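Section 5.1 Outputs to date
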Amino acid sequence: MTRAGTLRRAARLPLVLAASVALVASLAAAPATAVPPSPTPTPGAPSPRPPVPVPPLPASRFGVTITPRDGAVVGVAYPITAKFSAPVTNRALAEHNMHVYVNGTRSSGAWYWKTSTVALFRTMSFWPGHATLQVRLTLAGVELGHTAKVRYVGSSATTRNHTIRTPRALVAKVNGVTDRFVVRIDGVTVKNFATSLGKPGFETRSGIKAVMEKYALRHMTSIAAGITNPHDQYDLQVPWAVRITPTGEFVHGAPWALARLGRYNGSHGCTNLDVADSHWFYSQVIPGDPVVTTGTPRSMEYWNGLGAPYNIPWAVWLSHSALKGRA
């Protein structure tokens, strides 16, 4: 190499060094990009597979029984009951598919869940007289609950219409202070009987009851009623007995009690009438006709018979409804 070439090479060397220093500096200032390391395969391990979809639980078809029965004619204090063959956990969905109509108009009532399989429907007051009540069920194929092994889905029979009718609105009002038994039909007073209710220690319950069943003649004994006091023993054939609670309250004829009818209370809890008056009442009433008692120190229980649900305050009733009466 000539002396001139050597001088030219020496002159370029500082420029190359400067460019190298600048490149290193720019690489150092640039943000680092993380590059994940490639997984190291484990010798003999299977390759990853997509998750297998879990099949749905098998379906079990539930049924629903409505009372009163389809086509029944009942009194105005007969609540509607829906009894499911499987527990219901989605109660809102159940109520959304069980609508009640009165004379073709959507009812303002609500369902009350008594248990996981039993719901009752009523309005704030009694049904109207001369009415057609229709329960419209649309539960076929609707899933209302499940367990770890099975889903409960409505059978085809759970979509149907169920019709009930009320005739006249007969309401008996019994006053334990005045000892009068007043019967109104469609709001008009038709009878005003003398009566006698339960004496101290055997007070008749105040509240709403409803006719359950009736007997032309009923054998009643103190032993069957659980009464052990020797001064309160009785064994009677009772005429025209109309049951109004499952715990033993009847409206019935009491020929042995004529002296106290309309004057004072002396029975063991039943509502006593003259034989002729009790015969008239027996001949007129049907299941669900209300008997409303006032003026005694003992209250009706919420569970005690067909009319008992009407003693539950409306706010409490709604608190046991998933939809509070709304669709």
